[in-house]
Amino acid sequence: MALLSATHPTLLDLAKRQDPDGNIATVAEILSETNEILDDMIWLECNDGTSHQTTVRTGLPEGTWRKIYGGVQPTKSTTAKIKDSTGMLEAYAEVDKALADLNSNTAAFRLSESTAHLEGMNQQLAETLFYGDADTNPERFTGLAPRYSTKAAGEQAQNIILQSGVTPDNADNSSIYLIVWDPNKVHGLYPKGSMAGLHHENKGQVTIENLNGDGGRMEAYRDHFRWDCGICVRDWRYVVRIQYNDEDLTGDASSGPDLIDLMAEACDQVPNLNGRPAWYMNKRAMSYLRRQVRSSTSGSTLSREDYNGKMTTMMEGIPCRRVDALLRTETGIAT
After folding, report:
1. Would you give the distance in Å from CA 111 to the centre of its chain?
2. pLDDT in tens, the chain (335 residues)
3. What are the CA-CA distances from residue 247 to residues 37, 215, 217, 274, 332 (Å)?
4. How many CA atoms lie less than 13 Å away from 216 in the CB half-sphere?
5. Strand 310-315 vs strand 302-307: parallel, antiparallel, or unpaired?
6. What are phi and psi of 252, to 5 degrees?
7. pTM to 2 decimals?
8. For 152, how many CA atoms within 13 A lie in the half-sphere containing its CB?
9. Which residues on adjacent β-strands are paired with residue 241?
10. If you ran DSSP here, which 8-state letter would residue 212 be given?
């Protein structure tokens, strides 16, 4: 499996390059600890302001079996343009100055108070990466689930794998995704000319007026967080969505979804794993996957290995990432 070089940066890589005093790098580390998709996702600058235009090949030219003195007509491939947008996610954190100053390290206290805001933004980003839909929420970007939402139409339908217990009239399903991150396959986006990742601005001491709606005032420290981001699926073949009936999971796969079998099928759907491949699933799926592997195989396809400095569960040599934003209440994909 080919690994991406340092020229294809993750959020933490970009943060370390752009903030020499380490403030944003610290924030990026906090985010990565609670949203493991950020450890794998690579980021590219938009080529059209706050949106990104790419050209994808939709058809290959065919050759001609030529006979002697026979002619050959010129042919060409077919292409289509795709435009992906970014969204702006913002938050303010405010703490009472008197309370913060009681601590011997005001900056550390403010960061600890901001952690809840960071975690909230983190969860919102993870949710939007999978479920965001710019058609219904124009201020957001479109995530993966709306792009892989039906087997009835579109080339990407080939990369939707449904467990037999999934039907369009139930809403007790969940999904596992296989994504191969690469600049020519799937990657994150940030607006042209901006700073990648989450931007933090220390607004310093401010006076908050009309406190509690009674006209009172309070001195506070204020922090502003902003994250302009999106996702680009340049080649649909490098995302596979597995949808399964969550309520039917069993530890030995004697009934209900066989996660091992479904994930093996997903591996065969992508043309290759050159890039930074990863599985994404919620904690319940991760738990049942371990139990099904232990129950069904003596030479397990599941292992624990050092991956980017962390002990990580690997399936078929691909890291398994926990993303709790993946719901257990998905509506069944229509066939």
Report:
1. 25
2. 434 443 455 555 555 545 545 455 555 555 555 578 877 889 999 998 888 988 776 777 888 888 887 778 888 877 778 888 999 999 888 888 888 888 677 887 787 777 778 788 888 899 999 999 999 999 999 999 999 999 888 888 999 999 987 877 788 999 999 999 999 999 999 999 887 777 888 899 999 888 777 888 989 999 898 989 999 999 999 999 999 999 999 998 888 899 999 999 999 999 999 999 999 999 999 999 988 887 765 556 777 787 777 778 888 889 999 998 999 999 999 88
3. 25, 52, 52, 34, 13
4. 7
5. antiparallel
6. -110, 5
7. 0.82
8. 7
9. 160, 177
10. T
DSSP 247: G
- Side-chain-facing half-sphere of 164: CA atoms under 13 Å: 4
- Phi, psi values for residue 24, rounded to 5°: -70, -30
Per-residue exposure over 88-113, b if at least 16 CB sit within 10 Å of its own CB, e if not? ebebebbbebeebeeeeeeeebbbeb
Give the helix ranges, DSSP H, for 20-141: 23-34, 37-40, 97-102, 106-131
| Rounded-to-integer distance, Cα 210 and Cα 184, Å | 51
Cα gap 190→51, rounded to integer Å? 8
Which is it for strands 239-245 and 160-162: parallel, antiparallel or unpaired?
parallel
